[in-house]
TrEMBL record:
This is AAA family ATPase. Gene3D superfamilies: P-loop containing nucleotide triphosphate hydrolases (3.40.50.300). InterPro entries: DNA_helicase_DnaB-like_C, P-loop_NTPase, Twinkle-like. Residues 41-305 form the SF4 helicase domain. Transmembrane segments: none annotated.
Length: 314
C-alpha cells in the first residue's frame, strides 16, 4: 500500500461525481437507539485527541466535522497539525495530508524530527517512522494548486477506499484562487462540510489570518482572510499564534554576557492554540504550549520535554 497518492498512481475519476443525496426524511423514532445511547454517555466528550493531555477535555476532532486552523504566515499551523496527525496515528486513526505548499518529503522530515525527538535523526529512525506510518498515514502529492472538484474526488477516494478519518487541506487559498472570491470560498467550505459528513471523517482546513496591526496581536475570530462564511460554516475554529515578542525578548536578554532568561519570560508560552468556536462543545479559550526547537514538537509546559509519540505505543 503506497503512502503517497498522486493522480499518476491513483485513478480518481470514479470519485469525481457527487453522490445523490440519500433519503433524509425519517420518522423521529428511528433515532431511538441513538437517543438512548446519548443518555448513557451524557457529558462524555468524544473524538480524536491532541497529543497533550491537558487538552483532552477541551478540544476533540469528531467524525463528520470540519475544523478551521487559522494563523499568520509562519506561526506554526502546518507544524502543529503535523504533530496532531502523528497523535491521531497513535490513536489508530488514519490521516491523509494534502499540502499544496510543501513537498511530501519535507512534511515527513518534520515528522521524523518530531518522532525521533531530536534534530539529527538517522536512517534507523527514518525507517522506524515509515514502518510505523504504514497503514496510518497517506500524503496527497500535489504541489501548487488543486481545483475544489479534484480535491473532492481525492477526499471521496480517501473516505471510501483508504478509510481515512482525518483529511488535512493545507491551505484553502491553494484551492480557491482569489482572496476576494467570497462565493468560491463559501462553496468550497460547504463542500468540505458535506464531504466530512458523507464520509464520517474530520476535515482540517488550514487558512491564513490577517496580520492586523502587528504579529504580536493574537488574531481573533474575525481575523480570517476572505469570506465570513468560512468561519460561519465550520464546526470548530482553532488559531495557532507564535509568541514572537517573547522570542525577541529572550534574544535581547541573552545578548548580555553571563545572563540567563528571566523566569517570567521562561514561563510565558511560546505559542498559543486558541479555540474561538466550538459548535458541539462548550469550551472556548487558550492553551499554552512551548516549542522544543530540536524536535520541532510543541510541548505542554515550560520544561519543553518532547513526547515519545511512537515509543509509547509499540
Ligand atoms: N513558538 C515557536 N518558536 C520557535 N519557532 C516556531 C514556533 N512556532 C513555529 N515555529 C517555527 O516556525 C516555522 C514555520 O512553521 P509552519 O510552516 O508550521 O508555519 P505556517 O503557519 O504553516 O506557515 P505558512 O502559513 O507560511 O504555511 C517552523 O520552522 C517552526 O519550527
Amino acid at each position: 500500500m503506497t503512502l503517497i497518492i498522486t493522480p499518476d498512481n491513483t485513478d480518481f475519476s470514479a470519485y469525481m461525481a457527487e453522490t445523490e443525496p440519500q433519503v433524509k426524511v425519517m420518522p423521529a423514532e428511528s433515532w431511538t437507539d441513538q437517543l438512548v445511547a446519548s443518555t448513557q454517555q451524557a457529558e462524555r466528550i468524544t473524538g480524536a485527541k491532541l497529543p497533550w493531555s491537558k487538552t483532552h477535555d477541551l478540544i476533540r476532532f469528531r467524525p463528520g466535522e470540519v475544523t478551521l486552523w487559522q494563523g499568520i504566515n509562519g506561526h506554526g499551523k502546518s507544524e502543529m497539525l503535523g504533530q496532531a496527525c502523528l497523535g491521531f496515528a497513535a490513536q489508530d486513526e488514519r490521516s491523509c495530508i494534502a499540502s499544496f505548499e510543501m513537498r511530501p518529503v519535507k512534511t515527513l522530515r518534520r515528522m521524523l524530527r518530531q518522532t525521533a525527538q531530536n534534530d539529527q535523526p538517522g536512517e534507523t529512525a527514518a525507517r522506524r517512522l515509515m514502518s510505523w506510518l504504514t497503514g496510518r498515514m497517506w500524503i496527497y502529492d500535489q504541489l501548487g494548486r488543486a481545483s475544489p472538484q479534484a480535491l473532492a474526488a481525492v477526499i471521496r477516494y480517501c473516505g471510501d477506499v483508504l478509510k481515512i478519518r482525518h483529511f488535512v487541506v493545507d491551505s484553502l487559498m491553494r484551492v480557491v484562487q482569489g482572496e476576494d472570491d467570497y462565493n468560491g470560498q463559501k462553496d468550497f467550505v460547504e463542500l468540505l462540510c458535506r464531504l466530512a459528513q458523507d464520509h464520517g471523517m474530520h476535515i482540517h482546513l488550514v487558512h491564513h489570518a490577517r496580520k492586523g496591526e502587528s504579529e504580536d496581536a493574537v488574531p481573533g475570530k474575525f481575523s480570517a482572510k476572505g469570506s465570513g462564511a468560512i468561519v460561519d460554516q465550520v464546526d470548530q475554529m482553532l488559531t495557532v499564534w507564535r509568541n514572537k515578542k517573547k522570542e525577541r525578548l529572550v534574544e535581547k536578554a541573552l545578548k548580555v554576557p553571563g545572563s540567563s532568561i528571566p523566569d517570567e519570560l521562561v514561563s510565558q508560552p511560546d505559542s498559543l492554540l486558541i479555540c474561538d468556536k466550538n459548535r458541539h462543545g462548550e469550551w472556548e479559550g487558550r492553551i499554552s504550549l512551548w516549542h522544543h526547537a530540536p524536535s520541532l514538537q510543541y510541548t505542554p509546559d515550560s520544561r519543553r520535554i518532547p513526547l515519545d509519540i511512537i515509543g509509547s505505543l509499540e
